Amino acid sequence: MSAPNPLRRLIDKANGYPQWLSKRILTWAFCHKVKLAGTAGLEILETDGRTVTMRQRNLKKAQNHIGSVHAAAMALLAESATGFIFGVNLPGDKLPLIKSMQIRYLTRAQGDMQAVARISEEQIQAMQNQERGDTVIAVTVTDSTGAQTIECEMRWAWVTKKPR
């Protein structure tokens, strides 16, 4: 039997509140753990535990020299969205690790960026039943016009946590 996941419990509880409050709670909790996400200004817009939608506003602190969202901020957005949905579905006795990320920049971004990451039932079952493994988490990153600006492959691995 898998160990309970505290992040999953937080999501289940937060989703019981109105959406405006739920997204603030989830964003605060995520940015408290992932400091760079807080520095860049990432926001969790919504999640049902199988998908997550995150946003990177086109803030001055996340811009490049031409005034659009910086390439590194786009990578952070994709990595954060996939890591969040991966971590939510991982048993509490497992440790999530990014194994690799491949990013292809397709077009110049305009305005705010949004990432939608999803995980399948088969991936969740593998994470629940296998002591260690890895999987690619699907993510789509678009700008304010709806254009896909980057193509990503985020491979996440899990291992059993060592006792402290």
From TrEMBL:
Alphabetical list of Pfam families matching this protein: DUF4442
Gene3D superfamilies registered for this protein in UniProt: Hotdog Thioesterase
SUPFAM superfamilies with a match to the protein in the record: Thioesterase/thiol ester dehydrase-isomerase
Annotated organism of origin: Bowmanella pacifica
Protein name: DUF4442 domain-containing protein
Listed InterPro entries: DUF4442, HotDog_dom_sf
